[in-house]
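>> received
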Amino acid sequence: MADTLDAMADALNFASSVNGNTQRPSSPAAWENTGGGRLEGEWSSNPLQDANLSAGLLANSANDHASGLAAVLRMPAGGIFSTYTVARGLLESAARAWYLMEPDIEVLERVRRHMNERLHSLNESRLLLHGQGQAATHQDNQEKKILDTGGEHFSFRVSKKYKAARLGEERPSAMKLADDCMAAAAGETGMGRLVYQLLSGKAHGVAYALLQLLGAPSTPQDPEIPGVALRQVQHNAVDVAQMLLVPVVVYASMSQRYFQHQGWDPAGWQEASSNAYRGWAALAQAVPDAKGLVTVPQAQVT
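>> returned
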């Protein structure tokens, strides 16, 4: 499991390195960043380039989380609790990048999505400053510039009714994006939302989520401590694969879009992602024997 994650992350890092950490000249990202896609306005000198750089930052965050998740899975105890915390970070970054790099959307829509990310970020940093008793003059000014430019020059509907201001449609939650990505990649509706909620519960230390990691009581109750039943934390490859298959699928879907948007050769990555799909899916469907051991045909994970 860890090897397949490392292989995918290494393939993306290699493609980025051999291409000078930038898009190829004939790629969709290059077209948007240069003559055909440039938008004038007060947002920046090239808001499309900013949008693509922001998406790339998230893609690299997801890739780093994938490598981190592989390292956690290799821990002697398998990273019983930390596995799910790192997986949640992977799912969030990958789902957001997947959304921002959607192919064949209008350039103005790509900028709108990016600006809503900026507005969300400005609001979060403003709350941080206010919590320290400080003014957020820069954040307020930047927000006004984004909203004024969007409303006056590009006729976007401006709203400040929510926690963060926005242009047009509301910024989708990571949970919704995970669900949208799973529906697009695997035809699964509701699975992304469910897994995101479960991972969030584990990452935040919510009791119901942590209790799911406990096995059945070994005895009705501890004879030395009346009223207390002994339950052991269980952690095996099948349980992990079933819970983390969604983050892996979303990560792979995001990476595919990243390769396409950057115009990179996906050959090495496609082999790595295919192996990951087969291996994780095989484990997720496996049934442990009486001793809790799982045997997966080698052909399914090579």
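>> Strands lie at 158-159, 166-167.
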